[in-house]
C-alpha cells in the first residue's frame, strides 16, 4: 500500500496545502515577477468573465419563466424616469 503525504504551508495561524505554490512556481516564471503577474492576471480575468457569463445566463434562464416582457417593462420604466 502506498502512502502519500501532502506538504502544508504554515504561517502563524494560516495554513494551506503546498500544491498551489508548487503549481504556481512550475507554471509561471518567478524570475520575472512582472511577466508572471501579467500572465496570472490575464488568466484570472478570463476565468472571472466566464463565471460572470455563466451566472448571468443562469439568472436569465431562471427569470425567463416569471412573466413575459418583465425585463422590457422594467427597462422602459427606467428609461422613462431617467429622461
Radius of gyration: 23 Å
- Can you write the helix and strand succession as a string? EEHHH
Count the beta strands.
2
Mean pLDDT figure: 75
- In the sheet with the most strands, the strands line up as 1-2
Query: Which ranges are low-confidence, i.e. pLDDT below 50, for 5 or more consecutive residues?
Result: none
Indicate the percent of residues in helices.
Answer: 55-70%
Specify the overall morphology: flat
Classify the secondary structure makeup into a structural class: mainly alpha
Largest sheet: 2 strands, antiparallel
- Count of helical segments? 3
In what range is the share of β-strand residues?
A: 5-15%
Termini separation comes to 73 Å
Walkthrough of the structure:
There is one protein chain. This protein has 83 residues and is mainly alpha-helical. 64% of the residues lie in helices and 10% in strands. The protein has a two-stranded antiparallel ribbon with strand order 1-2. A hairpin with a 2-residue loop joins β1 (8-11) and β2 (14-17). The longest helix has 31 residues, at 33-63. The radius of gyration is 23 Å and the shape is flat. The mean pLDDT is 75.
